[in-house]
């Protein structure tokens, strides 16, 4: 019996990856104000893999692409050792007109684990893309009951 599988999981399992960038919360906290560049070959995808240790951390992103649009999706796995088929799709792959305007978004990390931003260019047979991205991380403020310094 064939199983129905999310296109994101299918892409991660059998698609052609250009780059996989591993980042931690500490890496993102030292990001600064600038953008970083991610290259995605034609008919391929690239990922940013963010390891999150604390629940309720919010991962934010802003990106643009050249020369045309790109698709973005977000998936979650308990760890990098987890099987790709065990991944949960948090944001389905969505085509973004990021060549015309910056795209912003965020996801709240409900569980510790690996959060993967997928930049998919598999729909473009001939044109490679560059994505210029900036990431942010917000940890929850935990009130400890003290009011003094």
Automatic annotation (TrEMBL):
BP-aspect Gene Ontology terms: plus-end-directed vesicle transport along microtubule; positive regulation of autophagosome maturation
PROSITE patterns: GOLD
InterPro entries documented for this protein: GOLD_dom, GOLD_dom_sf
Gene3D superfamilies with a match to the protein in the record: GOLD domain
Domain GOLD: 21-137
GO CC annotations on file: autophagosome; late endosome; lysosome
PANTHER family listed in its UniProt record: FYVE AND COILED-COIL DOMAIN-CONTAINING PROTEIN 1
Protein name: GOLD domain-containing protein
Organism per entry: Xiphophorus couchianus
Upper taxonomic lineage: Eukaryota, Metazoa, Chordata, Craniata, Vertebrata
């Amino acid at each position: 019996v064939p199983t129905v599988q999310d296109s994101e999981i299918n892409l991660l399992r059998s698609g052609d990856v250009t780059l996989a960038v591993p980042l931690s919360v500490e890496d993102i906290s030292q990001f600064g104000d600038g953008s970083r560049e991610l290259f995605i070959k034609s008919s391929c995808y690239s990922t940013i893999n963010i390891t999150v240790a604390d629940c309720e951390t919010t991962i934010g992103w802003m990106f643009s692409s050249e020369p045309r649009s790109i698709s973005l999706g977000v998936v979650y796995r308990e760890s990098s050792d987890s099987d790709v088929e065990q991944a949960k799709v948090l944001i389905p792959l969505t085509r973004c007109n990021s060549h015309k305007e910056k795209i912003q978004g965020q996801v709240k990390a409900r569980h510790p684990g690996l959060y993967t931003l997928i930049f998919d260019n598999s729909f473009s047979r001939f044109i490679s893309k560059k994505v210029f991205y900036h990431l942010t991380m917000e940890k929850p403020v935990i009130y400890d009951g003290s009011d003094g310094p």
